[in-house]
Design a protein that fits this description.
heterodimer; A: alpha+beta; Uridine Diphospho-n-acetylenolpyruvylglucosamine Reductase, domain 3; Vanillyl-alcohol Oxidase, Chain A, domain 3; 2 domains; eight-stranded antiparallel beta sheet; five-stranded antiparallel beta sheet; 12 helices; 19 strands; B: alpha+beta; 16 helices; 36% helix; 19% strand; globular; disordered N terminus
Chain lengths: 424, 506
C-alpha cells in the first residue's frame, strides 16, 4: 500500500513517463508504478516511496486490425474498456482480472489470469510486443505486431509478473481471439467436499506432492481410480476442450461447486455441454448438474476481500487434494477456495483475524510437501501485521538470477523496492 | 572467412583466442573427467560439425564434447569458464539461421547423447526430458495413452528439444497451439559460470518471480545451456479433418485465408502453396493437387467432433465463396498424409526445378498477404528470377523460395538481393525478419532495421545478467555485442558488420 507523503505524477504520454522517470533518477527518488490501484496491497512491504507514477492517463487503443487479430493498447487502459472495444469487432483478449477496474498494464505486471487460462494461457502467453520505460528513462521495445516472431529476446516475459520492479510498461500488443458464437456453463452444485480431498480417513495425512510420483518406467497414468472425483473428471473432460474448469469451496459443512465453461459454435456447444453434464453427473454422485448461459456469481472472483489474507496456490493438479486437505484441517470454516482447478491454480481466502503463526506453519507444511514438483504457495496479500512476519513467496527457483536481472535493469532499486520476491 | 572475421570481431577484446595449448589442455582435462569417447579433437571429425542446417556458414570448432548428463555439461561449462573459452550448444544441427554455428576458438557442446525421457506424468500432463531428445519421440512415447506434444517443426523427426527451446520452434500448427515457449513449463539451466539452476513451475502452471523459463526459450543458446526440459503434454483431439482446396491464383487463396479469420475460425493449420511450388511438388512426389490450380490451401481442423463438423461447414462455404476449383477432404491418417505430401516435400522439391535456391523466413500481418505477394512477384520479375511461395498463411509466416542457378553469372547476386528485399518488405508492412528460424548469424545485420539501438542495448542487459563473461554462443543475434559492465554506447546509428543478406542458401 502506498501511503504517506509520496507525490503523484500522471503522465499522458510516453514522453511524460520518460520525463518523470528521468527526473526521479536525477533526484534519486524511488518510484511506485500504479494503474487503477486494485492490487496495491499485493506483494511485500514497499520501501519508502517518493513518487507514485500513475498510468491512468495512458489510455486508449493505438491500433486494432481485426483481420490480423492483433491490438496495440496503452497500458493504463482499463481491461474492461479494451474488451468493449474489441467486442464490437467480434474479438476479445483472452486475459481476465479478478478486479473490475484493473488496467491492462496492471494485469500484466501482477501476472493475473482468470478462468480462461486453461485454454489460452495467461497475459504473457498472448503478449506479442511491448514498449516500456527503463529505470534510466530510456524507452525500449521488444517483440512486434505480428503473431509469429522470434527476432530478439522477448522482454515482455521479463515484465509480465514483475510487480513493477523492472520498468514502466507503456504500450502492449496482444494476440486476440474471436468471441465464441456460443457459450455455456455446466455447473455442478452440491458437490461433496470429499470429491476434492484425498481418499482415506486422514485428509491431511498424505504428502501434498505425493500424488504424482511416477510408477515403474517413470509413467504416471491419468486414469488412476484412486483419485478424488473432481480430479478424475478433469481427464475425462480434456477431449471436450473446455475453456475453463473452475472450483468453488467454502467451509467444511458447505458443499463445493464445479463449473465448466464450453465455448464454440451453437451446435457444438449444445452437444459438448450435454456431454460435460453427463460426465459431471456420473463422477460427482449427488451433485445437482445444470447447463446455464451465465456464469455462477463467484466465477473469476478472488475468494478474499480487501484487508483479508489471499493465497495463490499454483499446484500440480495431482497435489490439489492434499493441499486442500491440509488447509481445511488447519483453518476449517474460515477457509474459502476458488480458482482454476483444471490448471491447478487456486486462490484461498482467510479472514484478517487468522493467527500469523498458524498461517506460517501451514505455509511451511504445504511448501515442504510440494518440494521438487515446482508447485508453489504464495501469499498474494495480507494485512501488514500478518504480512511483515511471513515468508510470502517460499523458496523461489532461480532467485540468484533474478537478483542479477534486477541489478542490471534497475541497479538503484528505484522501482517498487521490497515488493517482489527476495525483497527485490 | 567472412564468418570467421565476424566472430573474431564480435568477441574481440572479451576473450583471448584459444591457443593450441589451451585446446590441448582442455581436451586432456575433459577426457579425464568425461572419458575419451566424449571428446573429439581429430580435425576431420570436428569438421563434421562445421555447420548446422544453414550450410552456407561453416566454421570448424576447436573442440567437440559430447556429454551424457547434466553433471557432465556442468563439468564442460566450468572448464570453459575457468579457461575463458567460449562454447556453443548444438542439438541435432537442423537449425536454419546458423544458431549452432561453432566458434572457431571455442568448444561445441553436442547434446546428442542426452536422449533420456526422464519422466512422464499423464495426470499433470508433463514430460521431463533431456535436451537431446528428438521432438517426435515425446509424442511417440505418449501416443498410446492418447497424448501428444504440440510444437511440430517440419524437422520434428530429427530435431532435438534442446534446439527447439533455443529457437522457440513453431511449426504448421502454431497458429492454434502456439510455439515452444507455450509448451515448456520448466528448465534446468547450466549458466555460463557452471551453475545448474532449476527454473519454472515444472508440474504446475505458474511460479513467482521473473519468468526465467520464458526468457531462456528463444534466446538461441546465448543465456546458457538447458540440461532438462519439462514440457506440456496435450490430449489428442477427438477429431482431425484436413481439407485441401485448389484456387485459380494466390489472390483467391489469400482472400479465403482472410475470410476464415473474419468467420472467427482458429484452424490448427492454414498452409498455402503457389503455382511454382505446386509444380515442383508434383514433379518430386506426384501429389496430384487439383489440376490447373494457381494456389492451394491446406486447412486442418481439430478438436471435439461436434465443433470440427461445424467448422468444416464454414470452411467449405468460405472456399466456395472465394472461388475454389476443387475441395478434397481427409479424415484418416493415410488420406491426411496424401494431402500433406506435397506441402511437406515442397522445400526439397524446389531442387527439382532449380539448381539452387534460398529459403527465406519472414512474417507479415495477415491482412498484408495479398499486397506482399504482389510485391514479391514484382521484385522477382524485375530481377529476372523465380520465387516459389510456400507458407504458413494462418499466421502470416512466409517462406519464399528464391530460385537461382549459380552457374549463370549474376543470378546469385540477384537472388540474394531479392531475398533481402523480401525481408525489407516484411518490415515495411510491420512484420518480422524471422517467424521461426531465428536470427543466429544469418540475420544479425537486419536486427537494427527492426529494433532501435536502445532496444538492442536493453536486450543485451538480459544477456549480461545471465552470462556476464559472454561465453555462451557469442557472436549471435546481436550485430554489435556489448561487453557486460561497459558504459552505454553513445546513441548513434549502430554499425552493421557482416553480410546484409539474411539468407539461407541450399
Amino acid at each position: 500500500m502506498v501511503t504517506g507523503a509520496a507525490s503523484i505524477v500522471r503522465p499522458a504520454d510516453v514522453a511524460g513517463v520518460v520525463d518523470a522517470v528521468r527526473a526521479a533518477a536525477v533526484d534519486g527518488r524511488t518510484v511506485a508504478i500504479q494503474g487503477a490501484g486494485t492490487k496495491t496491497a499485493w506483494g511485500g512491504r514497499l520501501a519508502a516511496v517518493d513518487l507514485v507514477l500513475s498510468t491512468t492517463a495512458l489510455t486508449g487503443v493505438v491500433a486494432h486490425e481485426p483481420g490480423d487479430r492483433v491490438v496495440t493498447v496503452r497500458s493504463g487502459t482499463p481491461l474492461r474498456e479494451l474488451q468493449e472495444t474489441l467486442a464490437a469487432s467480434g474479438q476479445r483478449l483472452s486475459v481476465e482480472s479478478g478486479y473490475a477496474d484493473a488496467t491492462v498494464g496492471g494485469v500484466l505486471a501482477a501476472g493475473e489470469a482468470g478462468p480462461l487460462r486453461l485454454r489460452y494461457g495467461s497475459g504473457r502467453d498472448l503478449l506479442i510486443g511491448v514498449e516500456f520505460v527503463r529505470a534510466d528513462g530510456v524507452v525500449a521495445h521488444s517483440g512486434g505486431r505480428v503473431v509469429k516472431n522470434v527476432a530478439g529476446y522477448d522482454l515482455g516475459r521479463l515484465l509480465c509478473g514483475s510487480y513493477g520492479t523492472v520498468g514502466v510498461i507503456t504500450t502492449a500488443t496482444f494476440r486476440l481471439h474471436p468471441l465464441p458464437a456460443a457459450v455455456a456453463w455446466v455447473v455442478a452444485a452440491g458437490v461433496r467436499p470429499d470429491a476434492f480431498l484425498p481418499p482415506g480417513p486422514s485428509p491431511g495425512g498424505s504428502s501434498p506432492g505425493g500424488g504424482s510420483r511416477p510408477g515403474p518406467g517413470g509413467l504416471t497414468d491419468a486414469a488412476d481410480a484412486s483419485r478424488p472425483a473432481a480430479i478424475a473428471v478433469l481427464a475425462d473432460l480434456a477431449t471436450l476442450v473446455p475453456s475453463a474448469v473452475e472450483a468453488n469451496l467454502a467451509g467444511p459443512e458447505d458443499a463445493g461447486e464445479l463449473a465448466v465453461l464450453v465455448e464454440g459454435s451453437p451446435a457444438g456447444v449444445t452437444a459438448r455441454a450435454r456431454a460435460v453434464r453427463t460426465l459431471l453427473a456420473h463422477r460427482l454422485a449427488g451433485a445437482d448438474v445444470t447447463v446455464v448461459t451465465q456464469p455462477p456469481a463467484w466465477w473469476g472472483r478472488y475468494p478474499f476481500a480487501a484487508g483479508e489474507v489471499g493465497l495463490k496456490l499454483a499446484l500440480p493438479v495431482s497435489a490439489v487434494p492434499a493441499v486442500l486437505g491440509r488447509l481445511r484441517e488447519r483453518f476449517g470454516p474460515r477457509l474459502a477456495v476458488r480458482g482454476s482447478l483444471g490448471s491447478g491454480v487456486l486462490y484461498a481466502g482467510l479472514p484478517a483475524t487468522v493467527a500469523a503463526g498458524v498461517l506460517a506453519g501451514a505455509l511451511a507444511e504445504i511448501r515442504a510437501g510440494l518440494a521438487g514438483t515446482g508447485g508453489t504457495c504464495v501469499v498474494l496479500t495480507a494485512p501488514p501485521s500478518i504480512r511483515d512476519g511471513l515468508d510470502l513467496w517460499g523458496e523461489v527457483a532461480g532467485l540468484s538470477l533474478m537478483r542479477r536481472l534486477k541489478a542490471q535493469f534497475d541497479p538503484a532499486g528505484r522501482f517498487a523496492a521490497g515488493r517482489f520476491v527476495g525483497g527485490l | 572467412m567472412l564468418i570467421r572475421a565476424l566472430l573474431g570481431r564480435s568477441h574481440g577484446g572479451m576473450i583471448d583466442l584459444m591457443s593450441a595449448t589451451t585446446a590441448t589442455e582442455l581436451a586432456r582435462r575433459l577426457r579425464a573427467q568425461l572419458g575419451a569417447s566424449a571428446v573429439v579433437t581429430d580435425e576431420a571429425e570436428r569438421r563434421t560439425y562445421e555447420c548446422d542446417g544453414l550450410a552456407h556458414y561453416r566454421t570448424v570448432p576447436a573442440l567437440v564434447v559430447l556429454p551424457e548428463s547434466a553433471e557432465q555439461v556442468r563439468t564442460v561449462v566450468r572448464a570453459c569458464h575457468e579457461a575463458g573459452v567460449p562454447w556453443v550448444a548444438r542439438g541435432s544441427g537442423t537449425g536454419l539461421s546458423g544458431g549452432a554455428l561453432p566458434h572457431p576458438d571455442g568448444v561445441l557442446i553436442v547434446t546428442s547423447r542426452m536422449r533420456r525421457l526422464l519422466s512422464i506424468d499423464l495426470v499433470n500432463g508433463r514430460a521431463v526430458v533431456e535436451p537431446g531428445v528428438i521432438n517426435l519421440a515425446i509424442s511417440r512415447a505418449v501416443a498410446d495413452h492418447g497424448f501428444f506434444y504440440a510444437p511440430d517443426p517440419s524437422s520434428q523427426s530429427v530435431c532435438s528439444i534442446g534446439g527447439n527451446v533455443a529457437e522457440n520452434s513453431g511449426g504448421a500448427k502454431c497458429v492454434k497451439y502456439g510455439f515452444t515457449v507455450h509448451h515448456v513449463t520448466g528448465l534446468e539451466l547450466c549458466t555460463s559460470e557452471g551453475e545448474l539452476i532449476r527454473v519454472g513451475p515444472w508440474l504446475a502452471a505458474d511460479a513467482p518471480g521473473y519468468d526465467l523459463t520464458g526468457l531462456v526459450v528463444g534466446s538461441e543458446g546465448t543465456l546458457g545451456i538447458v540440461t532438462k526440459v519439462a514440457v506440456r503434454l496435450l490430449r489428442r483431439p477427438e477429431q482431425v479433418t484436413t481439407l485441401l482446396a485448389g484456387f485459380p491464383s494466390t489472390a483467391e487463396a489469400g482472400a479465403a485465408t482472410s475470410a476464415l479469420v473474419a468467420a472467427g475460425l482458429v484452424p490448427a493449420a492454414v498452409e498455402m502453396m503457389d503455382a511454382l511450388a505446386i509444380s515442383a511438388a508434383e514433379q518430386a512426389v506426384a501429389c496430384r493437387y487439383p489440376a490447373g490450380a494457381g494456389a492451394v490451401l491446406i486447412v486442418e481442423l481439430d478438436g471435439p467432433a461436434a465443433e470440427v463438423a461445424e467448422e468444416e461447414r464454414i470452411v467449405r462455404q468460405v472456399f466456395a465463396d472465394c472461388g475454389a476449383l476443387e475441395v478434397r477432404r481427409a479424415v484418416d491418417e493415410a488420406e491426411r498424409a496424401e494431402i500433406w505430401k506435397g506441402r511437406k516435400a515442397a522445400f526439397a522439391a524446389v531442387g527439382r526445378i532449380s539448381r539452387n535456391y534460398i529459403v527465406q523466413d519472414g512474417v507479415i500481418p495477415r491482412t498484408s498477404l495479398a499486397s506482399v505477394l504482389a510485391s514479391i512477384d514484382e521484385l522477382a520479375g524485375s530481377a529476372g528470377i523465380r520465387v516459389a511461395n510456400v507458407f504458413h498463411a494462418g499466421d502470416g509466416n512466409l517462406h519464399p523460395l528464391v530460385l537461382y542457378d549459380e552457374t549463370v553469372p549474376g543470378e546469385l547476386d540477384a537472388a540474394l538481393s531479392v531475398s533481402g528485399a523480401i525481408l525489407d518488405l516484411c518490415l515495411e508492412h510491420g512484420g518480422s525478419i524471422t517467424g521461426e528460424h531465428g536470427v543466429g548469424v544469418d540475420k544479425m545485420a537486419k536486427m537494427p532495421r527492426m529494433f532501435s539501438a536502445d532496444d538492442l542495448e536493453t536486450m543485451q542487459w538480459l544477456r549480461c545478467a545471465f552470462d556476464p563473461p559472454g561465453l555462451a554462443n557469442p557472436g549471435k543475434i546481436f550485430p554489435t555485442p556489448r561487453l557486460c559492465g561497459e558504459p552505454p554506447r553513445p546513441r548513434s546509428a549502430a554499425t552493421t558488420p557482416g553480410s546484409d543478406q539474411g539468407i539461407e542458401i541450399w
